[in-house]
């Protein structure tokens, strides 16, 4: 990493080495940032370039500093509401994405069968010609709809534009059906609006914060962690529901170590107490909500005594925590979560949380959810897209009626040939998502891949997915390219610019250039009227009275905010975008589609003797599998561990730090992984951080380090409402392995 050695890097990241070892102290270690934001006055300093971070999807804006032409450091932009001038350890280590010697370096074309990983280096022209020929053949023989795309990350938008122009809208993002899809649909059904990203949660002003699984502090979304730290410092009562003693649990007034998969029962019991004890916001409920009487009747049986044997949470704790929520309302926030695809009834579970928020009157109130503002920055026009004749839905006979985006598993299903369907998907474009680790049931993903006529992977690393591609297109990193403006919702409207701090290394190129060149060769050049990103951005920025030149100096620009009010005024009339115009405690749309209009608890399967439920989450210094090979971040955490309760470890004779192998109910096994024997997890589950266990030798640092939870996720429960894939339904046992 240029001229900076490891110690300097750690200092900049604001983490002492001690903080890395003890998970529970991460929050303290995280908050005292050692960067003085005043020292980073942007404009005048040569060698300073604005960017927004691509290491995770919080997209913090910051400044890239060079010294003697080399990468030096990245720091937060003080004007940026996502970072408030402070980057998280991963963002600070982001320079490692640029310096990583294992990066993809040239376009590659496969020369032997898929997965064997025999490629030849190719010129860009050759690579594009190969893709264009195959795409045209697919279009001619099967129709343009037989091309599909998976995307996660900034550059995906240009490929989406290309694919829509080509005539397909089979575009899926794992951030929907493997992440926050159920949450967005649940809030849409209840409030007629989604939660969005960054979340519209007013954590900063919250007096009582209820975290159901959300492991803030390990889940390191920057501004959110900062607000959480602020709320804790000003005495907010935190109620954390988690089978594991998370970092957030260590900051909480109440830790409820719930039996995994039973959260919906706990939430129904809370609703029961809040209604039966008359603790709800009566004025708010009467004015804004629909279906209170039905709700009251529906939860009558769901007493704390009913929930106790299901959840293992004692009735008096359920009552006490319900009263704590009501006492602080409306500044009580039942956090909607983010990765919520857990058990397949996820839309219903998240809806129970949405209903709690409505009873507490916290939607549209200070300390609850604010109404976000977003800058209006028109995009330059291009011709209308052709209308596809069919899409992934046609392969699903009317299932998942509330899915508002294509679901990744749906694309896989529609790719695997069946006798009953004549329009299998034949080609995939995969931008910035490592499908073999990201989608559950990796065997099925492989089966779909093997059926393809064309697989194009656009990545910066030789990630697992690239090993199966016909053509690999190496993108330059976010530090070497422009991307579209960041226009995200927040407390006030703002835009942020990403400009290149460095020339692209090797023979790598930005996604915009790739998508445009491909489009031109496909005869779709009119959809990319701007030859360069500079002219595109400048045109876009001029429409709001700014310019590329100005944004290069500012990095983040705040726009006037005249329409938006953060909170509802007392007694204000408001029409919600739901069928009844009210907050729907009773969902008329769900009723109409034949689903429970009010969430009901049904029991999930439990592990048999000798088996434990596999749960997973995040580590503060990594983002999924995308950072595990990053030289700076690999240094901080090279492999994951499996958390095991001491009682279980004793039964199996497993010692702390010893390597074990896990085997799931279907006989799937994972790479060897160190045991972390700890009281901080329940006895009926084991836990690991996602993103490890890479199988690609070309990623030298992360190859074969730790285990991949995905290898053990051979089973899913699909959410019938919107197609999310519940992934915490696998049970594992131990196989001992000598290190
Ligand atoms: N450092 C870092 N931060 C990240 C990311 C990252 O990769 N790295 N990724 C970002 C992304 S895309 C997302 S979606 C978010 C995800 O972050 P969250 O939305 O917080 O994800 P969860 O799956 O809710 O959190 C995992 C927690 O759920 C607990 N858990 C497991 N099973 C159950 C259960 O049955 N009930 C309850 N109550 N808890 C359970 C686990 O013990 C763990 O503490 O993180 C974001 N932030
Ligand atoms: N088993 C399991 N599965 C999960 C999760 C889990 O916790 N456990 N989490 C789920 C969640 S919440 C989410 S959001 C998804 C996330 O899933 P993904 O977004 O697929 O995350 P990664 O696995 O990090 O894959 C990102 C890929 O993008 C590449 N990449 C990084 N930067 C760039 C860039 O600038 N350009 C290009 N072209 N490529 C780039 C990386 O090298 C990597 O190959 O996974 C979901 N799947
Ligand atoms: S939270 Fe960290 S990794 Fe994510 S965008 Fe911000 S600085 Fe980057
Ligand atoms: Mo996610």
List the helices and strands and how they pair.
Blueprint: H1 6-13, H2 17-21, H3 26-30, E1 48-52, E2 61-67, E3 70-76, H4 89-92, H5 95-99, E4 108-110, E5 119-121, H6 124-142, E6 147-151, H7 156-166, E7 171-172, H8 174-191, E8 208-212, H9 222-233, E9 237-241, H10 247-250, E10 254-256, H11 263-276, H12 282-288, E11 289-290, H13 292-298, H14 304-311, H15 315-328, E12 332-334, H16 346-360, H17 408-415, E13 427-431, H18 435-438, H19 442-450, E14 454-459, E15 471-474, E16 494-496, H20 511-521, H21 533-542, H22 548-554, E17 556-558, E18 583-584, H23 588-592, E19 612-617, H24 631-634, E20 641-644, H25 646-652, E21 659-664, E22 673-677, E23 685-689, E24 717-718, E25 725-726, E26 731-736
Parallel strand pairs: 6-7, 6-13, 8-9, 8-12, 9-10, 11-18, 13-14, 14-15, 19-23, 20-22
Antiparallel strand pairs: 1-2, 2-3, 4-5, 4-15, 16-17, 19-26, 21-22, 21-26, 24-25
Helix pairs in contact: 6-20, 7-20, 8-16, 11-14, 11-15, 11-16, 14-15, 17-19
The structure holds ligand MGD (2 copies), iron/sulfur cluster and molybdenum atom.
């Amino acid at each position: 990493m240029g001229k900076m050695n490891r110690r300097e890097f750690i200092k900049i990241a604001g983490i002492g080495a001690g903080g890395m070892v003890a998970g529970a102290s991460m929050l303290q270690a995280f908050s005292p940032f050692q960067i003085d934001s005043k020292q980073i006055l942007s404009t005048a300093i040569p060698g300073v370039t604005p960017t927004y971070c691509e290491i995770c999807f919080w997209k913090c804006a910051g400044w890239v500093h060079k010294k003697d032409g080399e990468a030096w450091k990245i720091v937060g932009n003080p004007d940026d509401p996502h970072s408030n001038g402070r980057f998280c350890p991963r963002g600070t280590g982001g320079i490692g994405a640029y310096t990583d010697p294992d990066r993809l370096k040239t376009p590659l074309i496969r020369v032997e069968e898929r997965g064997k990983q025999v490629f030849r280096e190719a010129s860009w022209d050759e690579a594009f010609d190969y893709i264009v020929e195959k795409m045209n053949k697919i279009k001619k023989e099967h129709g343009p709809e037989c091309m599909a795309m998976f995307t996660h990350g900034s550059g995906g938008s240009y490929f989406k534009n290309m694919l829509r122009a080509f005539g397909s809208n089979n575009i899926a993002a794992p951030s929907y059906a493997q992440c926050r899809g159920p949450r967005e649909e649940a809030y849409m059904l209840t409030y007629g609006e989604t939660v969005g990203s960054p979340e519209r949660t007013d954590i900063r002003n919250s007096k009582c914060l209820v975290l159901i699984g959300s492991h803030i502090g390990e889940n390191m979304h920057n501004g959110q962690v900062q607000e959480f730290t602020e709320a804790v410092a000003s005495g907010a009562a935190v109620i954390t529901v988690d089978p594991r003693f998370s970092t957030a649990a260590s900051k909480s007034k109440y830790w409820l170590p719930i039996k995994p998969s039973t959260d919906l029962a706990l939430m129904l019991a809370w609703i029961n107490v809040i209604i039966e004890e008359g603790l709800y916001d009566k004025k708010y409920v009467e004015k804004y909500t629909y279906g209170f009487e039905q709700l009251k009747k529906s939860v009558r049986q769901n007493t704390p005594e009913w929930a106790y044997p299901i959840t293992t949470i004692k009735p008096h704790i359920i009552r006490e925590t319900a009263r704590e929520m009501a006492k602080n309302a409306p500044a009580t926030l039942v956090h909607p979560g983010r990765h919520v695809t857990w058990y397949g009834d996820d839309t219903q579970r998240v809806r129970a949380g949405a209903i709690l928020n409505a009873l507490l009157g916290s939607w549209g109130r200070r300390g609850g959810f604010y109404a976000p503002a977003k800058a209006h920055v028109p995009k330059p026009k291009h011709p209308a897209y052709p209308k596809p004749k069919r899409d992934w839905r046609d392969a699903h006979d009317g299932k998942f009626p509330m899915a508002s985006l294509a679901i990744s598993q749906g694309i896989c299903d529609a790719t695997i040939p069946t006798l009953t369907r004549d329009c299998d998907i034949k080609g995939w474009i995969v931008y910035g998502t490592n499908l073999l680790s990201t989608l559950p049931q990796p065997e099925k993903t492989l089966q779909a891949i093997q059926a393809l006529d064309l697989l194009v992977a656009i990545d910066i690393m030789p990630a697992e997915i690239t090993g199966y591609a016909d053509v690999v297109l190496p993108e330059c990193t976010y530090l070497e390219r422009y991307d579209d403006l960041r226009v995200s919702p927040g407390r006030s409207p703002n835009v942020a610019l990403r400009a290149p701090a460095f020339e692209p290394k090797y023979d790598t190129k930005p996604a915009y250039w790739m998508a445009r060149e491909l489009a031109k060769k496909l005869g779709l050049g009119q959809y990319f009227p701007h030859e360069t990103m500079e002219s595109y951005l400048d045109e876009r920025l001029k429409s709001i009275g700014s310019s590329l030149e100005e944004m290069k100096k500012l990095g983040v620009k705040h726009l006037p905010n005249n329409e938006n009010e953060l909170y509802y005024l007392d007694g204000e009339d408001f029409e919600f975008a739901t069928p009844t115009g009210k907050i729907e405690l009773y969902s008329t749309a769900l009723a109409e589609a034949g689903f429970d209009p009010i969430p009901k608890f049904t029991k999930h399967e439990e592990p048999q003797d000798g088996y434990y439920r596999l749960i997973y989450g995040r580590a503060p210094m990594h983002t999924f599998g995308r950072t595990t090979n990053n030289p700076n971040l690999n240094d901080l955490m090279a492999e994951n561990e499996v958390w095991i309760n001491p009682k279980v470890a004793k039964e199996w004779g497993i010692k702390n730090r010893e390597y074990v192998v896990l085997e799931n109910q279907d006989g799937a096994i994972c790479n060897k992984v160190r045991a972390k024997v700890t009281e901080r997890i329940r006895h009926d589950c084991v836990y690991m951080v996602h993103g490890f266990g890479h199988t690609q030798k070309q990623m030298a640092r992360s190859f074969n380090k730790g285990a991949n939870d995905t290898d053990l996720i051979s089973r899913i429960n699909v959410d019938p409402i919107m197609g999310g894939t519940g992934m915490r339904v696998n049970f594992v046992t131990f196989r001992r392995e000598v290190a």
